[in-house]
Design a protein that fits this description.
- With 776 residues, this protein is mainly beta.
- It has three domains: 95 residues, Immunoglobulin-like; 120 residues, TonB-dependent receptor, plug domain (Ferric Hydroxamate Uptake Protein, Chain A, domain 1, Beta Complex), CATH 2.170.130.10; 525 residues, Maltoporin, Chain A.
- It has a 22-stranded antiparallel barrel.
- Strand 39 and strand 40 form a beta hairpin.
- It is globular, with a radius of gyration of 29 Å.
Length: 776
């Protein structure tokens, strides 16, 4: 009995001793750039089977035997990290770094939910937080043009047009999202929509190329650009930045956030101002701020609220003619034309996880937007040619001041259910978008100096050209099904059904200026998509898909004439294949995509027998090409990226106002677009980066008749930055060789128009992260 008692005492002593020997290490995993928490990151004790994952706040705790141990920290989309921690270490903060390339491991936009890139049968690229941080873009095009097959046209002061699997165009063929929600409503597309984005609040950008109407609805034809915003930071952060260049641009940024208990708050924004730049009459200013508040009811339920406020103003110089462009004269005839935008966006999203296989979300979005203009493109000289004679007054011109405004009330509900059978998952959702809008244009009488050509002043007259209201309602349901019938094969199928109701109320008597009579129109569209991925290994895979996209008629196409045309949505049929590969332990990776996009029922203006014109679904176009992205890390300190595309865009059957373009290449459609970038980050100077970027845009036709070509351009940019603790200094030189070229050029019946690119300019910036400066 005594011996048994002795063994019990010894066993209890050993147990107590071991329990006291075991200590707990606590910490948090965060993004090294954005300071956001990283949930579901893996923490593994090196050379042991022990491992855990972070919770939704990025937190973890792991037991220790009382000795130092090595932890291997990893998460998809980040570079793994190995570090030594001491026993009983608390408040440990581990920052993971994302890769500096456009080929993601995890994507969000491919199926409206988080998914592995290897299971998404689409051409999709991600501009990571690191890419944006290193580039320090003044305008969105400075990062977006790094994606293969993308050319965002800089029209000055954050204004733009776009080319993604389409020519450079202002047409409604691209969909712009913020956290998966369209920033504008259907039927009121504006090619300058991205000036409404707050780049200070953007974490990363995803570009889905090709039609995505099966998930996102209309206008997702050439591509979808989804701006994913910053969440509240895991640690208190306050970052202030200032920058300016030698062509009149100045900007200051604010980025701040924190998480405390169940609450998370972030406020991000900037104010930009430009005066006395290289083009006469091209001043602008923009103030934008986004506030976000998150509340986590529990580990399964959390609420996100964000509000964005925008105030924007820009002079509107318009393009310059061929004589001014040839003589490098940037003098402008405009003195009062402008564009101003006032906007607010509010979004509230409630997410709930029922269990590890089931989750739902409900989002509400409110948009309030107004674009006021005294547009340069509406200024028309009274003195004009009529037949063989000139008529009118040389010192008189005509123009207008207009305002286009809308409110939007949007509701999107979505549910995802996963199944063990064939690893299947289904995402289903419904949406409703109710957007009343108004438009008014008033005539102005313009005084012109007949000698200098300057439009000096204008007078408002009691003459209303256009005044109407339109109610645009869009209701939709969509479903996305995924499954793996056999190992390595993933099949994805999507289907969406949209219905539209346009109600047009004209406050004026119908005419060619005021628009059509009051009317109500209905449209509907079914958008299917089916595709597959096949992964030969974790490092190589292929994909293919077939999809349809659609674009309903715009309000301006429906109601600007005396008679309402009988229009249907334009439909695009897409056939696509591609693949990706990673070699040499990730030091070499590439992705490739080929597409064939057939556009039908496109809206064209048809000349009638009586000399008038009418919009009809009579246009057909063809778009085909190949896109390639390559990332190389030959040595530790050097990274190289190449993004390129060859494409051809053709008119198949296009008769515009009696002129046939059949068989011609589309205007504004270069065959070659590529972008190459080399970065050097010397390990012997921690925090230093040096980068050089070469952008090439090939030649293209200026007009659809194919009479004159623009030769395209090559331009080189140089970037350098140095980060020391909480301070960062950067110097970016745009157009290093001071090349003289145009961002875009065109030819019409009114003559040639060129948008001159920026000459060589140097931007110097400085930022301080006070949260890091005062960190213990």
């Amino acid at each position: 009995m005594k011996s048994v008692l002795t063994y019990l005492i010894i066993g209890l002593f050993v147990l107590v001793q071991n329990s006291f020997a075991q200590t707990i290490c606590r910490g948090r995993i965060i993004d090294g750039i954005t300071k956001e928490a990283i949930p579901h990151a893996s923490i593994q004790v090196k050379d042991a089977a022990k491992g855990i994952a972070t919770n939704n706040k990025g937190e973890f705790e792991i037991t220790s035997t009382g000795q130092s141990q090595s932890l291997v920290v990893s998460c998809i989309g980040y570079q793994p990290l190995t570090m030594v921690v001491e026993p009983q270490q608390t408040n440990l903060v581990i920052a993971l770094q994302s890769g500096n390339n456009t080929m993601p491991e995890v994507v969000i936009s491919a199926n409206r939910d988080v998914a592995r890139r290897s299971q998404a049968p689409v051409a999709i690229n991600t501009l990571t937080a690191k890419t944006i941080q290193d580039t320090k873009p003044i305008t969105v095009d400075q990062v977006l043009n790094k994606v293969s097959g993308v050319y965002m046209v800089n029209l000055g002061n954050e204004q733009h047009s776009m080319s993604i699997r389409q020519p450079m165009t202002t047409k409604s063929l691209f969909l712009y999202l913020e956290d998966g929600m369209p920033i504008r409503t259907t039927g009121l597309f504006n090619h300058n929509a991205l000036l409404e984005m707050n780049m200070a609040a953007v974490r990363n950008i995803e570009v889905v190329k090709g039609p995505s109407s099966s998930l996102y609805g209309s206008e997702a034809i050439g591509g979808v650009v989804n701006f994913i915003t910053l969440a509240p930071t895991a640690l208190p952060s306050l970052k202030l930045s200032v920058q300016g260049n030698d062509i009149g641009y100045k900007r200051t940024d604010l980025q701040t956030g924190f998480t405390s208990g169940k609450w998370g708050v972030s406020v991000n924004g900037y104010y930009a101002d430009k005066r006395n730049s290289y083009i006469e009459y091209s001043d602008f200013h923009k103030g934008i701020i986004t506030a976000r508040v998150d509340y986590r009811f529990s580990d399964k339920t959390f609420l996100t609220n964000s509000f964005t406020w925008l105030d924007y103003y820009s002079d509107m110089p318009g393009g310059i003619d061929s004589a001014k462009f040839a003589s490098k004269s940037f003098r402008n005839p405009q003195t009062f034309t402008y564009r101003k935008v006032a906007g607010q966006r509010y979004r509230s999203t409630l997410n709930h996880s029922w269990n590890e296989h089931s989750k739902s979300s409900v989002s509400f979005l409110y948009r309030n937007n107004s674009i006021g203009q005294n547009p340069a493109y509406s200024v028309k000289d009274d003195y004009r040619r009529q037949g063989s004679a000139w008529i009118g007054k040389k010192d008189l011109a005509h123009g207008e001041i207009n305002d286009a405004s809308f409110n939007s009330y949007v509701l999107i509900a979505q549910h995802k259910q996963q199944f063990q059978w064939k690893d299947a998952a289904i995402i289903g959702g419904v949406s409703a978008d109710i957007s009343p809008s108004t438009y008014r244009a008033d005539y102005i009488r313009i005084k012109k100096d007949s000698v200098s050509g300057k439009y000096e002043s204008y007078q408002t007259k009691d003459s209303v050209l256009t005044n109407y209201r339109s109610n645009l309602n869009n209701y939709a349901a969509y479903v996305n099904l995924e499954l793996s019938p056999i190992e390595k094969l993933r099949v994805v199928a999507s289907l969406r059904y949209d219905v539209f109701r346009y109600q047009f109320d004209n406050y004026l008597k119908p005419s060619s200026y005021s628009g059509s009579p009051d009317t109500v129109n209905h449209f509907s569209a079914v958008s299917p998509k089916i595709g597959f991925t096949y992964n030969f290994s974790r490092a190589a895979g292929i994909y293919a898909n077939y999809s349809q996209g659609f674009v309903p008629p715009q309000v301006t196409e429906m109601y600007r004439g005396v008679k309402v045309p009988n229009l249907d949505p334009s439909v695009f049929y897409n056939y696509e294949a591609g693949g990706w590969i990673s070699l040499l332990k990730g030091k070499l990776s590439a992705d490739l995509s080929l597409y064939y996009l057939d556009g039908t029922n496109e809206v064209v203006s048809v000349k009638l027998d009586d000399g008038s014109s009418e919009n009809r679904n009579a246009g057909k176009t063809l778009h085909k090409g190949i896109e390639l992205g390559v990332n190389v890390n030959p040595v530790k300190d050097v990274s190289l990226r190449f993004s390129g595309a060859y494409s051809r865009h053709e008119f198949v059957d296009f008769n515009e106002k009696g002129v046939k373009y059949n068989g011609n290449e589309m205007n504004g459609a270069p065959n070659w677009i590529y972008n190459t970038e080399l970065w050097y980050r010397p390990s012997y100077v921690k925090g230093l980066r040096l980068g050089v970027e070469w952008q090439h845009l090939g030649s293209y036709w200026l007009d659809p008749v194919n009479t004159v070509k623009y030769p395209g351009f090559d331009v080189v940019h140089l970037r350098a930055g140095y980060q020391w603790k909480a301070l960062e200094l950067w110097v970016n030189t745009v157009n290093l060789g001071n090349s003289y070229y145009a961002y875009t050029a065109s030819k019409s019946s009114f003559g040639y128009s060129y948008n001159p690119a920026e000459p060589r300019n140097v931007t110097v910036g400085l930022s301080c992260d006070f949260g890091q400066l005062f960190k213990k």
